[in-house]
Amino acid sequence: MTGNHRGCGARRNGAPPGRPAADPSPLPAFPPFPSPTLPRPAPSPPAASTAPAPSPAPTATPTASPAPAPAPGFGAYLHYSPRGITDMAAFSRWLGGREVTVGHTYLPGDVWQNIEGAPAWLADWAAWYKAEPGRTLVLNVPMLERTEARVPDAMVARELRRGAAGVYDGHFERLARRLVGLGVKDAVLVVGWEMNGTTYTHRCGPDPRAWRTYWARIARVMNGVEGAGFRFDFTPTRGRDATPWTECYPGDDVVDIVGMDSYDQPYGTDFDRQISEPYGLQAQVDFAAKHGKAISYPEWGLFKNGDNAEYMRRMIRWMDAHPPLYQTISDYCPHGVWQCRMNQRATAVYRQAFKAGGGLPAEDAGEKEQAPMRDCRPVRLGGWLEERLGGRLCVRFNW
After folding, report:
1. What is the pLDDT of residues 242-284, one digit of tens each?
2. Which domains does the chain have, with CATH numbers?
3. Cβ distance 106 to 80 under 8 Å?
4. Short-list 174, 178, 206, 179, CA closest to 192
């Protein structure tokens, strides 16, 4: 579920294990659609003499302490189905009883019926959300059907323009009614995620203007349904990718959160570069601050640099320094920790940092982050082959 990092690096193809399959179950039927005043002072008693009475000493008014900022929502993507819900309990036990406050799942993007919220398991996620106060449900919502069908750019552009013109409004109105009916009227909706890449049919590059208009239209249509108060998360993948993600931003009036999917890639890219690269982590934080938005990390984790404990440590420190509204690690191989036993060193860092009563361990001086490959010259192989290989190959030229 990530985009395509170009240059001397790599990308992650496809979706996590257990991608939502088509669900033929029909949708349920839905019905159509003074400031306080200060008290007056009490009258003064009569004076005993003509001498002026001494003024009473002023009484100090206690200053209320500012309310502490809420802790970031914490969770993990474990599975789209009800299995992901039961796994959250085991994940919490693995972390010594740490409360998991964010549930994260994805709508299938194969056909419109599923984007409208047809899958029966949405009710299970709604039940989890309503079981305890303070929980957040994060739902990724495709903008177009055939989400991963490698639809050509010309067809994508045509579909985006149809969406911008309102042709697909009904699908998103039905989704909103489904969610409101389930009692999750304030879910965080990650609409058209990783739009700056090339993986998804809902990519922005073929027509950024139409994409922006369509995304904004989806937000307005869904929050126009009675009872709805959804929060909309604009989430590109980290870095330049195929299209600068700032060109896709649909506007402050419809965006609530500026998210970022950020994996440890491309190969040999250290964390300092992930911060400072164009359209990277620092750019996200700065952009969100400029626009008055919260930030999030719906997808993050290990990848091309393997069991990289230093990446894990630095990413956790980054989120400590720049608290997101929520963060959910992608917990399946090769990205994860609890469900992926190949990442033992990084898992130890994550578990120590997030377990109940834990904290980030001191840096192990013997552990170094994967250094970037030097003397590396990227070889142009063409867009399709580079995408299949995960980026351009880097060939050493000093052998």
Report:
1. 999 999 999 999 999 999 999 999 898 899 999 999 999 999 9
2. 73-368 (3.20.20.80), 370-399 (no CATH)
3. yes
4. 206
